[in-house]
Every structure is written in structure tokens, then in C-alpha cells.
Design goal:
The chain folds into two domains: 268 residues, Aldehyde Dehydrogenase, Chain A, domain 1 (3-Layer(aba) Sandwich); 183 residues, Aldehyde Dehydrogenase, Chain A, domain 2. The protein is 40% helix and 24% strand. The protein has a seven-stranded mixed beta sheet with strand order 14-15-16-13-12-18-19, sandwiched between helices. Strands 9-8-7-10-11-21 form a six-stranded mixed beta sheet, sandwiched between helices. The chain has a three-stranded antiparallel beta sheet with strand order 5-6-22. Strand 5 and strand 6 form a beta hairpin. It is globular.
Length: 476
């Protein structure tokens, strides 16, 4: 059994949970401890005690630790990528790619530890010097989702440690394997005892203690809108800093002048790969009427050629849905879409494979309107809707008509429309002739409206959340 990691020791939890392979539900990936409230509180206490010492560490110490973590992740990407695919259901190439990205994130923040800057300014008063520096917050609570079980923890843990904070990390209860493997690497990186702690378990138990404990000075959360709102209300109630990444209903606009083959591939990649279980997935395909029918025919033909099967099998494009609960949600939305009058043009059926798992054929709806539930609510599965519009102006209006604002894309050969879309898309990220899903690790990530709250994640912008600014005055 894999145990929690607290104060430099592996400690058995109050209970245990079996981790099931969604590609083959007869396989138990591993058994993982579940922390209770008391154990979570103990982890927070030791992090609080260790935080001051790590805050005073040198840039070289932080570089060495983060670089060592990144190196081991990259060296073991095939092994850990397979673990990721077994517990989450991503295809093996996607699992390996995500693990490599986690390694690159740690190595990027190793470099950032050497680049932390401040300012020295002239005061408006004679004989006074002004210095502005960034300081760590203290204890950071990190709560991550199941869909990117190693990359999202990496892009939260790495900057937290880079900027001198102590960490209490709760991975998603559904996929503890990658979180534990990452914690095991961190445990052997040379980090001082107590600076990093892993507590696996239920959000209602472990997560709640992280949210309410006053020794936790900042909480960074990625997950559902409802839980994100609870995180916000709880942290605001005790004046703790918080950062939220929640969801998306991301549009991909395809104009008449687009390259058809490129647009089809962009849509299919963005909407259906990773089983559509990405907050950046292209769930609304907004197509102008001149290219609409050819685009739909092209997407259906491409979907017909996709292989849905065990995540570890060769040549698989789409693995299983992550678990039975998510599969039931996907099927319910497919039922809702048909009840609303949308046409199920392709897929949406349960599939049987050699191993029993949560297999669903990618579903494409046509003849939909933007006010349907399937176009308003995040489904988080391999389900996309086509919305027919007259022209660019209507396409942009429909794209922006959503409570979310994470990622937004357009396929066009027009510089005029591409430029206008980048300027006027109401989203944190805008893509031109690229899938809405897929971002670099060294640039800011985040959205607007109901998708995100707080400062951006990733890249140098991560410093905004994981540090606070101090201004010092000296009379010369």
C-alpha cells in the first residue's frame, strides 16, 4: 500500500482506496492510503514549521532540488506515462507526453529560482531609497483534478517550491498513483523535511481541512465550478489567498475561407483527444454556413477512422472515460441533447472491447443552438456540438455567449479575421488554426469569467500567486 508522506516519513492513513484501471476494470493499479482530518492537520503543522527555513533557502538550493525532480521525471517518462495511462485512461503517447511536460515544468522553475527579480527605485523624497522584493506566502495548499494527474500538480508544486513556500498536496482521489509517484520523487530530491507533504483522500475531509486551516496562507485549486465556488467562499471568509481554474465551454470558429482539412483535424484533436476530458476542449464548433456541410462530413469521416480502445494498446486514438460516474454523466448529456432536438450525427454509444472498461464512441451533435444545455454546460467528455452561423460577426457573438472564458479558437486564412478574433474573443487564451486544447508550459495559463479566478498559472506569471510583494524604505 502506498502511504501518505508527512514530515519526511511515509505514514499509513486512516483508510485505504483501490485505484482501478478504466481500460480494464478488473485491474487494480494500486492501493493508496486515505488521510483523515487529524493527519491532514498534522501535515499542515509540519509544513508551517518548515516554511520559514525554506523561505530563507538560497536560489541555488531551490534550483538543485527542482532540477533534480525534473531530471528524474524526464528519465522515467515511459514508466510514469504508463502508470498515468493505466489510472486515468489517456493513451500511452499522451501519458508519456504529459509526464515529460511535468519534468519540463520543474526544470523551468529551477531556472526561475535563479531569476527572481526585485526593483530598486528612486523615492520622490530626497535621500530615501526604495526596494521592492517578492517574498513567499508560507504554506500553500494544492488541490488538483484527475484529468491531468501529473502535469497540473507539477505546475502548482514547482512554483510553490521555487518561490520558497512549503506545500501540502492533495491529489484527486480518483487518480492518486501519479500524485504519489511525483511525491516519491520529490521526497528524494534533497528538499528539507516538512517542506513538502502529500495527503491523499476525500475532498470533503482532506480538502476541507486545507481550506479552513488558518496556517494555510494560499490555496491553488483546479476542478469543478461548484467546488471552486466553495473554495472561494471558504478562503475569502478567512482572508486566505486563492487561485481557481474551473472549467470551459470552449468555442472553435471555422470560417468559410478556412483550409478544410486543417480545420477538421484541429476540431477533432481539440474536441475528442484525451477523451474530451480537458477544460480546454473544443466543445462548441461554430461553423459558418458556406463550409458547414463539408466540415461536418469531414469530421464524421475522421471520427470513423479513430480507434477507441485500451489506453495501452498500439494505435489507439481515444482511451476510456475515466470512471463509471463520468461515463454516466456523458451519457446523460447525450440523452439531453437528443431531447432538446439536436441531431446525434455520430457516435455516443457504449463500446465493448477485449478488456471491460468505460468505452464511449466520440459523439458529434449537429443542428444545435447555443441556448441548448449541451452548449451551455461543461460535459467533460468526448462530446461536441456543431452550431451553424451566417458569418464571422455572428460566429464571434456566439463564441462569446457563454459563462466561461478559458480558451477560444478560430480557423481562417484571413489575417483580418484572425487579428480581430484575438482582440475580441472573451477568453484567457485565443488560438488561430490550432486546437483550443494544448498550451506551452512556459507561458501563462488561465481564463476569464467563470473559468478562472486569480492570477495566471505557469511561466513567470506564477510568481503573482505564490509570492507577496514587500516595499522597503531606507533613509540614506
Amino acid at each position: 500500500m502506498k502511504k501518505n508522506y508527512i514530515d519526511g516519513q511515509y505514514i499509513e492513513g486512516a483508510a485505504a482506496r483501490e485505484n482501478i484501471n478504466p481500460s480494464d476494470i478488473s485491474e487494480i493499479v494500486g492501493i493508496y492510503s486515505q488521510a483523515d482530518t487529524a493527519q491532514t492537520r498534522a501535515a499542515i503543522d509540519v509544513a508551517h514549521s518548515a516554511a520559514e527555513g525554506w523561505a530563507k533557502s538560497t536560489p541555488q538550493q531551490r534550483f538543485d532540488v527542482l532540477d533534480a525532480i525534473g531530471n528524474e521525471l524526464l528519465a522515467r517518462k515511459a514508466e510514469l506515462g504508463e502508470l498515468l495511462s493505466r489510472e486515468e485512461g489517456k493513451t500511452l503517447p499522451e501519458g508519456i507526453g504529459e509526464t515529460a511536460r511535468a519534468g519540463q515544468i520543474f526544470k523551468f522553475f529551477a531556472g526561475e529560482a535563479l531569476r527572481l527579480k526585485g526593483d530598486k527605485l528612486a523615492s520622490v523624497r530626497p535621500g530615501v531609497d526604495v526596494e521592492v522584493v517578492r517574498e513567499s506566502l508560507g504554506v500553500i495548499g494544492i488541490i488538483t483534478p484527475w484529468n491531468f494527474p501529473i502535469a497540473i500538480p507539477a505546475w502548482k508544486i514547482a512554483p510553490a517550491l521555487c518561490y520558497g513556500n512549503a506545500v501540502v498536496f492533495k491529489p484527486a482521489d480518483l487518480v492518486p498513483g501519479c500524485g504519489w509517484a511525483l511525491a516519491d520523487i520529490i521526497a528524494r530530491s534533497g528538499l528539507p523535511k516538512g517542506v513538502f507533504n502529500l495527503v491523499m483522500g476525500r475532498g470533503s475531509v482532506v480538502g476541507e481541512e486545507i481550506l479552513t486551516n488558518r496556517k494555510v496562507k494560499g490555496v491553488t485549486f483546479t476542478g469543478s465550478v461548484a467546488t471552486g465556488q466553495h473554495v472561494a467562499a471558504t478562503c475569502a471568509g478567512r482572508m486566505a489567498k486563492f487561485q481557481l481554474e474551473m472549467g470551459g465551454k470552449n468555442p472553435l470558429v471555422v470560417l468559410d475561407d478556412a483550409d478544410l482539412d486543417s480545420a477538421v483535424e484541429t476540431a477533432v484533436q481539440g474536441a475528442f483527444f484525451s477523451t474530451g476530458q480537458r477544460c480546454t476542449a473544443s466543445s462548441r464548433l461554430i461553423i459558418t454556413e458556406g463550409i458547414h456541410d463539408r466540415f461536418v462530413a469531414g469530421v464524421i469521416k475522421r471520427l470513423e477512422g479513430l480507434k477507441v480502445d485500451n489506453a495501452l494498446s498500439d494505435g489507439v486514438h481515444i482511451g476510456p472515460v475515466v470512471d463509471d460516474s463520468q461515463l454516466a454523466q456523458d451519457l446523460e448529456y447525450i440523452r439531453v441533447g437528443q431531447a432538446e432536438g439536436a441531431k446525434l450525427a455520430f457516435g455516443g454509444q457504449l463500446l465493448e472491447r477485449a478488456t471491460k472498461g468505460f468505452y464511449l464512441s466520440p459523439a458529434l451533435f449537429t443542428e444545435t443552438s447555443n441556448n441548448m444545455r449541451i452548449n451551455r454546460e461543461e460535459i467533460f467528455g468526448p462530446v461536441a456540438s456543431v452550431i451553424r452561423v451566417k458569418n464571422y460577426e455572428e460566429a464571434l457573438a456566439v463564441a462569446n455567449d457563454t459563462e466561461f472564458g478559458l480558451s477560444s479558437g478560430i480557423c481562417t486564412t484571413s489575417l483580418k479575421y484572425a487579428t480581430d478574433f484575438k482582440r475580441n474573443a472573451k477568453a484567457g487564451m485565443a488560438m488561430v488554426n490550432l486546437p483550443t486544447a494544448g498550451v506551452d508550459y512556459h507561458v501563462p495559463f488561465g481564463g476569464t469569467k467563470g473559468s478562472s479566478f486569480g492570477s495566471r498559472e505557469q511561466g513567470s506569471y506564477a510568481a503573482e500567486f505564490f509570492t507577496t510583494v514587500k516595499t522597503s524604505y531606507t533613509l540614506a
